[in-house]
Structure formats: structure tokens, C-alpha cells
Design goal:
4-stranded antiparallel β-sheet; 16% strand; 10 helices; globular; single chain; 43% helix
């Protein structure tokens, strides 16, 4: 919405542009309503899919502009939807780019590529970005204020830059720790923010088929703290995962594993303590843990039925307390 207000020169049209921007900014996430009664992975596969692509963005802009025009028409005010197309398009694009900054994965380049873009700069939910930006947007709409819209975008730029710097600090600290402790050569490394902040980061290091989690606290400049955490075996490919569960390569569940592998960017392994579940190892409530937030249950005896999708998000209070201790710098290594 902020960008829609900012580019609209005429004050009397800024609320119209804001409404079109609001609609276009929300419409990409209408894909959450894409569901299948028989396929639990359908929504997982199509969230942040074609509705979040650059190719589809003009369609989002058209719908956003028409929705805004229709709302005004309902109140007996005529607004030409064509004048709202450009602010709606920019607002829709801002949604795509904001999603790409996170670690979930967004198929911006569909249909030319199925790559799930995830820059890992910022947590999916970060109140230090969202709350000030939402306040500026509210002021921009209420008072048709370009200054408020500009302030919101400047804050977003400043905070995003801070997050990028923090990510690089975490990456440097992890690489230094690996070198100082003579760890085996890393086959793959990932650095992503922990939930709701850019102070504590989750590092994942794969060596010899084992995924190890590491929490990295980036406090004041020159002050980083690294907490080695839990580890768990990884499965290197969808084929390896299917074989590990005793599934035929052409079975429905083997194909579901391939879809889940793509969604998880290859970070898959058996869920610790739940051996019949293949988990997405990227996320955990606490960055030094291997306690996945979701996974799929495999049933080899019913291999031609779709897998069951599971969430593991209950009982978060102890995890939140430990994450808070990490943010304060008082958390200790589990070892």
C-alpha cells in the first residue's frame, strides 16, 4: 500500500490508490484457498506458486484495480479502474519481493522456472519490520500523506539492510567456527533468521550426510555467540528417501516425497523420535534444535495413497523461553 500511495501525485486519489494497493497486495495469498480433499500436499505445492510470479502480476493488478473501483462504485463514487492499474501492479510486486526475502520459498519466475526463491534475509514474521511499516501505512491512508508512505518505505529499507548485514555476520561466524574447530568439510550450509527477530540466526551444516543445527547470536558489532546444537541424518535425494522408507519409485508416496523434497529445498530427513515421518529440517522453534515444524507421514503398506501432512507446533512455551534467552545472550550450550 505504501508504494501505491507514494507514486500517486493527486492527494484526492491516494486513498483510491491505497485501496487498489491493499487489494493487489493481499490477492497473491488467495492461493491459501487452493486445496484438495484427497491430496494433503496440494496447498503446500501451490502456495507462493503462480499467484506469486512476475508473469501473473498484471492479472493481480487488474483484479486489485477492479476491486477498488467496485468498492467506490458501491458508494456511488465513480473511479476509473484503469487509473489504478499501475499503483496496484507495484503493490502486487512488492508482495512478491517481500516474500522472496524470507526463507519459505517463492516461485517468482514461474512458469519459466520452478525455483523457489528464498533469500533468507528476514523471518516470515518480524514485528520490528511489520509494526512500524503498518503504522506508517495507516497514517499514509488516513491523511493521504506521501511523507508517511515514504517514511515507511525508508524504514523497510533500513531494517532490511540491517538484516542482510546480520546474515553476513552469522555466516562469517559459522565459517570461522567450522575452521577453528576442525570440523569436517561442509557439503552444504544454510543461514536463516530465527522466528521473529534478526538477532539470533539458525545455521545448518551438512557433513557426511549429517545435518547439524547451530544457533548464532549477532549482538553488538564484534560480539557474536555460537551455540552448537542437535544433529540428525539427512536423506540426499527423493529417490534415497523413497528407498529408505521401502517405497517403489513409481508409487504415489514416492512421488509425494519428490514434491516435499522440492518444497523443502532438499533439507529432508526422518523426524527425530517419529521414524515414520519425513521432516523439513529447515525450521525449528529454537535455532539449535532439530525439532521440525512439519513433515509427512509415510505408510509403505499403503504406498499408493497420498501421504499425511503433519504440523508439530504445539507446546511452544519452553522453546520460546530458550529463544528469548538466546536473544538476551544468556542461553547456554546443551552440551
Amino acid at each position: 500500500m505504501a508504494i501505491a500511495v507514494l507514486i500517486t501525485r493527486q492527494p484526492k486519489r491516494r486513498r483510491q490508490a491505497a485501496l487498489a494497493g491493499l487489494a493487489a497486495g493481499l490477492l497473491p495469498d488467495a492461493d491459501v484457498f487452493l486445496r484438495s480433499a484427497t491430496d494433503p500436499l496440494f496447498n503446500l505445492q501451490y502456495h507462493r506458486h503462480f499467484t506469486h510470479s512476475l508473469v501473473f502480476s498484471p492479472v493481480i493488478a487488474l483484479f486489485g484495480a477492479c476491486i477498488a473501483s467496485s468498492v467506490y462504485a458501491a458508494f456511488k463514487k465513480q473511479v476509473d479502474w484503469r487509473t489504478l492499474l499501475f499503483p496496484a501492479w507495484l503493490a502486487g510486486l512488492s508482495h512478491l519481493f517481500c516474500d522472496a526475502w524470507t526463507s519459505y520459498g517463492t516461485q517468482i519466475f514461474w512458469p519459466f522456472s520452478s525455483w523457489r526463491v528464498s533469500l533468507d534475509w528476514i523471518s516470515i514474521i518480524d514485528p520490528l519490520l511489520t509494526v512500524p511499516l503498518a503504522a506508517c501505512v495507516a497514517l499514509a491512508v488516513r491523511y493521504a500523506s506521501i511523507r508517511a508512505a515514504r517514511t515507511g518505505l525508508i524504514w523497510a529499507g533500513i531494517y532490511l539492510t540491517f538484516c542482510i548485514v546480520q546474515q553476513q555476520r552469522a555466516k562469517s561466524a559459522l565459517n570461522q567456527w567450522l575452521a577453528d574447530n576442525h570440523q569436517p568439510p561442509a557439503e552444504r550450509i544454510s543461514i536463516r533468521p530465527s522466528i521473529g527477530n534478526a538477532i539470533v540466526w539458525r545455521g545448518l551444516v551438512v557433513s557426511d550426510g549429517i545435518c547439524r543445527a547451530v544457533a548464532i547470536r549477532c549482538g553488538r558489532p564484534g560480539n557474536t555467540q555460537l551455540i552448537p546444537g542437535q544433529s540428525s541424518p539427512m536423506l540426499a535425494s527423493p529417490e534415497a528417501a523413497a528407498a529408505d522408507f521401502g517405497l517403489k519409485p513409481d508409487s504415489v508416496q514416492a512421488l509425494d516425497i519428490a514434491r516435499f523434497y522440492h518444497f523443502s529445498d532438499g533439507w529432508i530427513g526422518r523426524c527425530p523420535g517419529v521414524p515414520d515421518v519425513l521432516a523439513d529440517l529447515r525450521y525449528s522453534n529454537v535455532p539449535d534444535e532439530i525439532k521440525p515444524l512439519w513433515g509427512i507421514r509415510l505408510t509403505p503398506e499403503a504406498a499408493d495413497r497420498h501421504v499425511e501432512f503433519l504440523n508439530f507446533r504445539s507446546g511452544q512455551t519452553p522453546s520460546i523461553n530458550r529463544l528469548w534467552d538466546m536473544m538476551k545472550g544468556t542461553a547456554k550450550s546443551r552440551g
